[in-house]
Write a structure and sequence with these properties.
It is built from eleven helices and eleven strands. Helices cover 36% and strands 15% of the residues. The protein is globular. It is an alpha/beta fold and 293 residues long.
């Protein structure tokens, strides 16, 4: 189990981020059980065979289910009576540092502009062929790719003079990289592993003041594409969309981005979660009284 919240004055809340934790924590009997479902883990490459069975057990055990986006909510709401969507919030102030003066990191300082950047885990969710196609069709654009390579062979990543794989970076260092990009992109593959994702990096790009181009991830299209905050592209038009993003006047776009970001915060996310937790605890505490009466 990923987290247990308890004090002498507070109820014991068993908080699961993955059903796999039941393998060693199923014996814990708390006052409340929360399943914080941030991803469709069973769709990821090399997912454990027992994951689906354990998730069924966790649904039966949980009092509340939180999901990391609307698509995941729609996939899980039929499996539990109390499912609530919570698309990830972000640290706006942290990524907002990218809008101010900040030194260009040494490993990208010599990369020419214009720069288009991506940051995140590089795994089966990345559309490697789209990356290859974009780099080949836009030799004047330099693509900076940050993140550790996981579950795929690094030898399969495309190579080109304008394609720069810089490896994993510390969270604290990300604003310095983003500050010196001209646009961001999210070249996700459209497959089972991305069907239910709601990429946190979308609002992080917005907070950094970067126009973004993404493939047609459902939650990105519905939440950001529909509001004109992110351009949606595929292999047929990615070059046009990226060049458009690079030439987008920033002032009006930044106003829309900031208006969107003003509506979200980790504090508001936690307040809403805490409200559901309080209500669930109150309901559980009232049931013995009703039975006794």
């Amino acid at each position: 189990m990923d987290e247990i919240v308890a004090t002498s004055a507070a109820p014991l809340i068993a908080w699961f981020y993955t059903p796999m934790a039941l393998q060693f924590a199923s014996h814990i009997a708390g006052d409340l059980c929360v399943y914080d479902c941030m991803d469709e883990l069973s769709a990821f490459k090399n997912a454990p065979a027992e994951l689906v069975r354990l998730e069924r057990e966790l649904f039966a055990r949980a009092d509340l289910v939180f999901t990391g986006g609307m698509s995941l909510y729609e996939a899980k709401r039929a499996h539990h009576p109390s499912v609530h969507p919570f698309p990830s919030s972000i640290d706006v102030r942290h990524f907002g540092k990218a809008r101010g003066p900040i030194a260009d990191p040494a490993d990208q300082a010599d990369i020419p502009h214009p720069r288009v950047g991506f940051f995140g885990v590089i795994d089966e969710r990345l559309d490697v062929e789209l990356v290859r196609h974009a780099a080949a069709s836009m030799p004047d654009i330099h693509f900076v790719m940050l993140g550790p390579v996981v579950k795929i062979d690094p030898a399969t990543l495309p190579e080109a003079p304008n394609l720069h794989w810089l490896g994993g970076k510390q969270y604290a260092d990300l604003p310095a990289y983003l500050a010196h990009w001209d646009a961001g992109w999210m070249p996700f593959a459209l497959n089972e592993s991305t069907r239910y994702i709601s990429p946190t990096k979308t609002p992080e790009f917005l907070a950094a003041g970067l126009p973004v181009v993404s493939t047609a991830i459902v939650d990105v299209v519905r939440t950001y594409g529909a509001q004109g905050l992110v351009d949606i592209a595929d292999a047929s038009d990615v070059a046009d969309k990226l060049r458009s993003a690079l030439n987008t006047p920033r002032e009006a776009w930044l106003g829309k981005a900031d208006a969107f970001l003003a509506k979200t915060s980790w504090d508001s996310t936690w307040e809403a979660m805490a409200g559901h937790i309080s209500a669930a605890l109150a309901m559980k505490n009232s049931l013995p009284l009703k039975k006794g009466a």
